[in-house]
Amino acid sequence: MGVRMDELDRKILRALQADAGQSLDEIARQVGSSKTPVWNRVRKLREAGVIGPSTVIVDPEALGLEACFFVLIRTSEHEADWQKRFLAALKARPEVQEAHRLAGEIDYILKVRVANAKAYDDFYQALISEVRVFNVTALLSMEELKASTALPV
């Protein structure tokens, strides 16, 4: 890591990860500092790329997106053109919350959020019409036991 951080920086990051919408005054109170030093450190962490854009976490079930699938993909295609088309297909689909290239027998894993099994099938059919894959296995999450965007700082 290219950024030097001390314990106050880490406390600020923990507070922001818990709720980035809280005021600087509230963060300063939590970390035992005052508003100006907290603001300066947040600015420094943003400029260094430690802190990215602020977003809102939306409850998927409140939007009717009740099904979460983990999609395991094996491919026999590893050429740059295939990878480019695959990445474009993933980026074009808002259902794909995460995509990872893996080491081992499975090449990729996707986290896909949809309303139901029919919506997943629509996603699957669209994906395989754009890129050729060797094998796809979809695993339906029955219950989310833990979800966090916070990193251990």
From TrEMBL:
PANTHER family listed in its UniProt record: DNA-BINDING TRANSCRIPTIONAL ACTIVATOR DECR, LEUCINE-RESPONSIVE REGULATORY PROTEIN
InterPro entries noted in UniProt: ArsR-like_HTH, AsnC-type_HTH_dom, Dimeric_a/b-barrel, Tscrpt_reg_AsnC-like, Tscrpt_reg_AsnC/Lrp_C, Tscrpt_reg_HTH_AsnC-type_CS, WH-like_DNA-bd_sf, WH_DNA-bd_sf
Keywords from the named record: DNA-binding, Transcription, Transcription regulation
Protein name (Swiss-Prot/TrEMBL): Lrp/AsnC family transcriptional regulator
High-level lineage: Bacteria, Pseudomonadati, Pseudomonadota, Alphaproteobacteria, Rhodobacterales
Pfam hit, one: AsnC_trans_reg
Ranges where the HTH asnC-type domain occurs: 5-66
Native species: Jannaschia ovalis
